[in-house]
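EI: anyone free to look at a 163-residue chain?
SC: sure, send it
EI:
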Amino acid sequence: MYLIGMPGSGKSEVGRIVADALQMPFADLDEEIEREAGMSIAEIFAAEGESGFRRRETSVLSRVSSRNRMVVACGGGTVLDPDNRTLLRAGGTVVWLNVPAEVIVERLDFDGGRPLLRAPEDVDALLKEREPLYRESANVVVDADGELEAVAAEVLRRLEARG
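SC: here you go
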């Protein structure tokens, strides 16, 4: 199962809760990329640009998607690459944690750790670009503007309803 959505949507925290409840392994795609690169995402962007980061992202997603039964928190821009969208859809249930821009702004620190979100005003443009791709990729859409434990419970409920 894959969790997609904007930075600040709660993918990592919700993913850990869901994985624990389902007794499945958990992977955070951004953490996997950083571990493999030996650099932070901001450092990867500085050294290789967004295209270098996206190549790494696709490589790690391909590797992670070959594993069975796990919960994966994807990076906010994973859906930008058509090959990634294909991998997601082929690899299991894709859950979009949908959060309004104002909630994202409340949740995020704009401290330079997110190269594409340096200021609150960047959120609207990024959301406008990515929202159609999230919608296209998702099997399940969960409103994720509440407490993350409640969001995780809703994800679990929706997965159970799907069978």
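EI: The chain is about 60% helix and 10% strand.
SC: 👍
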